[in-house]
Amino acid sequence: MLPFAALASLRGIAARGGLRAASAASALGAPAASAWAAPRRAVGTSAPAAAAASAPEHQQSAEEPRLPQRGEARKLNLCSAVNEALHVALEADDSACVFGEDVAFGGVFRATVGLQERFGAERVFNTPLSEQGIVGFGIGLAAAGGTAIAEIQFADYIFPAFDQLVNEAAKMRYRSGGLFSCSGLTVRAPCGAVGHGGHYHSQSPESYFAAVPGLKVVMPSSPAEAKGLLLACIREPDPCVFFEPKMLYRTAVEDVPAGDYTIPLGVARTLSEGSDVTLVGWGAQVLVLAQAAKAAAALPRPISCEVIDLRTLMPWDAKAVAASVSKTGRLIVSHEAPLTGHFGAEITARIAERCFARLEAPPLRICGADTPFPLVYEPLYLPGVERVLEAIKASAEY
Amino acid sequence: MALAAIAAAGAAGRSGLLPALGRALQRGFAASASADDKFTVEVMPYKAHKIEPPSNQVETSIAELTSMYELMYTMRRMEIAADMMYKAKLIRGFCHLYDGQEAVMTGIEYAINREDAVITSYRDHCQLLARGGTVKQVMAELMGKAEGATKGVGGSMHMYRKQAEFYGGCGIVGAQIPLGAGLALAKKYEGKRNIGITMYGDGAANQGQKYEALNMAGLWNIPVIFVCENNHYGMGTAEWRAAKSSTFYTRGDYIPGLKVDGMDVLAVKNAVAFAKQHVLDNGPIILEMDTYRYHGHSMSDPGSTYRTRDEISTMRQERDPVERVKKLLLAQGVDAGEVKAIEKKAKKEVDTAVEESKVAAPPPMSWQWKNVYHDPVGIKLRTTTGGYVTPSYDPTYTLP
User: Fold this and answer.
1) SMART domains, from UniProt (chain A) (predicted)?
2) What distance in Å separates the CA atoms of residue A156 and residue B174, rounded to the nearest whole number?
């Protein structure tokens, strides 16, 4: 475990990154009457000075304080970063166990490779193909004080375990009057599109779990993020569902700090600052938003976008999003899950509530279609860069 | 070994192997009378749980074996072609091959009729073929083409054939098991003398929902055969590492079971025919088919990290289900040229299907909004271009 002081300092660092626009948000507490009368801000005309600077600089300034540079950072892909986090977790905590389908050999995505060799078959072991059993056992282990890191091979397979997560894990502390909890439970599951996964290897079920009080739901957007957030989930005193965008397993590569670090849950990260439109996403979609923001900045009439990676869906950093939207006046939320009833709805509703007087355009959601996840129509279904860019233009020109 | 014990039996009674061979040589099997002559083959004795097992003397004929060989050889070629097309990136997505297990579905198909319902897991290409689908339908579906079995919208794991009561491949491990019991419940409710067959693997055999289905099927005497295709590896985990008891035919406790040599199509056919009668009269049974998959679990699994290459090659040499039928045919005196002709025909069918599927058209994009609901009154689904559509119900998928 990290010493508390180190945790606290990390928390501070991340909080600075996530709440950069706190001063702008202060106006939200009591919307001034003048806000109603304020003239509509046109795109690019009354942007804060910061927005004038080029995007790459901002990306750097947002990235720099994000993670501690302890030890040597290594270039890792997201899968290896998860693997490293698991090594760290098992090293630091004797009670930690990793289990799931085929994890002893490294799992289908190789995320657990080398763990059994190093920590033994008593701590890293294969389970039968029994998702309900896997999570149920994890809950028992965690309720008895252990650290259970369970893998569901694909997020699409998590539904047999839905009851265990919703009715057992989430309510354990509440219903036992605080006597028991499954704080030590973390369920990892690869999620999202992968290019050709079809109906049952592509879904993004995060919003179902975000709707369950008692669970924490996290989805990282890069290797360094994945390592820090996974370690945070494992040590979080609440059961966590950690979705890993499998599209990024091999394609996302960046410097990942060596050793042990955590990124606090519930704190968003601002990838790039902007003044016209706030783009909110999580997981692999953050990269789509970043590309769309870049494309918007390169338009003949440039639109400056602020890209926010939510990191955690439950609890989600409404403060950071509200602060950004109160600055830009425009909001676009984007996710792979279908439009109707998924997490974009929660964000746009809350922001409409909190930032009503500051909005210059209706909050938009750019999401998957309201259909099952398709096999041959995946590019059609997914909310790609072009569609996000269209939405940015529509929002700016509203 | 079964081959050594082959006995031929004409209408007049059983006779030895040599007379049968002589007869075959004399007539060259051009005459249908000889091809339909019945003879018996000894298969591996069944192991039984809470039931008297059927005899291991199985009656068959040259005609039946020839037809089985044609189907099984086509399955084998088709799966090998699918492997190649996958590696050529013409098939994308998740793809699970059936080669090695051909005898199981073939044996089932020859013991039931097309009003008996069949449902299986994601390893379903050959089930479609056995239930009367074509190689073309499978191959086009694999490549995501509109001419596929499910119009290209399902892919490898989702092949269906309604006219033959084939309820398809299910993507979630074990999810089809209770469904199969439900299909059988429908047959019983309708008062038909038909059954449901629900196929699953040794991996799925440890799923909780299987036990819920077993209990209800037993409680209500549902005519369902639980077919556990034990290929000995649930993905990359050996059965004994995943199951406290890997004698899957006994895992139904109060439900009787048989262990069947799943590499021998005649053993399977005989067991399923016996089981069909049993479930119609007495309620459910478990048939554990001892079988083997040559390929990995899916295309991302080389299939060689959790088992030895020796094990695979020994299985191919000693128990290959397709070779077994071929040897039987040859031992019965069928001309090697005739067997070759069957193989040539199958190869051609597969090659043609591959080539035609390559150039076939993908389904139109508007189909993404078909069949999400039957009649969504007042419901509009969002399209990806920002508009809204009322999805249509159109099982025929007529082109716009």
Assistant:
1) Transket_pyr
2) 14
pLDDT, tens only, B277-290: 999 999 999 999 99
Q: What pLDDT shows up at residue B91?
A: 95
Q: Do A369 and B241 touch (CB under 8 A)?
A: no
Given this model, what pLDDT does residue A367 score? 96
Report the DSSP pairing between strands A305-309 and B237-238: unpaired
Residue in A closest to B299 by C-alpha: A108
- Which architecture characterizes domain B42-359 according to CATH? 3-Layer(aba) Sandwich (3.40)
Chain-chain contact of A369 with B369 (C-beta, under 8 angstroms): yes
DSSP state of B393: P
**Residues lower than pLDDT 70 in chain A:** 1-71
pLDDT, position A69 = 52
Question: pLDDT tens for residues B225-235?
Answer: 999 999 999 99
Per-window interface: B 187-246 vs A, CB < 8 A: 203-204, 206-209, 234-237, 241-243
Q: Residues B105-122: what's their mean pLDDT?
A: 98
- Find residues 79-118 of chain B whose CB sits inside 8 Å of chain A: 92-94
pLDDT of residue B391: 81
**Interacting residues of B36 by C-beta distance below 8 A, sequence separation 6+:** B61, B62, B63
Using CA atoms, how far residue B256 sits from A149, B8, B13, in Å, is 38, 32, 33
Best of B87, B94, B306 to substitute, by most chain A Cβ atoms within 10 angstroms, is B94
Contact B372 A129 (CB under 8 A): no
Tell whether A139 and A166 lie within a shared domain: yes
What is the domain count for chain A?
2
- Tokens 């091959």 correspond to what residue? B97
**DSSP states along B326-382:** HHHHHHTT--HHHHHHHHHHHHHHHHHHHHHHHHSPPPPGGGGGBSSSS--TT--EE
Among candidate residues A155, A249, A196, the one with its CA nearest the CA of residue A382: A196
A154, A200 contact by CB (below 8 A)? yes
Within a domain: residue A177? yes
Q: For residue B42, is pLDDT > 80?
A: yes
Q: For residue A352, what is the domain's CATH number?
A: 3.40.50.920
Position with higher pLDDT, B268 vs B14: B268
